[in-house]
Amino acid sequence: MRIIVKPAGVIRMYVSEMELDVPPGHTLDQVIDCLRIPAPLKLMAFVNGIRKDGCTVINEGDEIRVITRMTGG
Length: 73
What we know:
Layout (H helix, E strand, L loop, with lengths): L1 E6 L10 E4 L6 H8 L7 E5 L2 E2 L11 E6 L5
């Protein structure tokens, strides 16, 4: 099945906006693993505009936006 990946911010250094084919039943964590984003980056992901956790199952045509978490102090 085909999904759309839209990276934001620093993530764009590692991943371009793309359409990606993934097997049915793939989770958000599995999609992010496929992108090979460096592990030290703290990520948040949104599916169709709604923040989701890694165990969320992805569906045909979903739009996945991946961003880094902001920290500060």
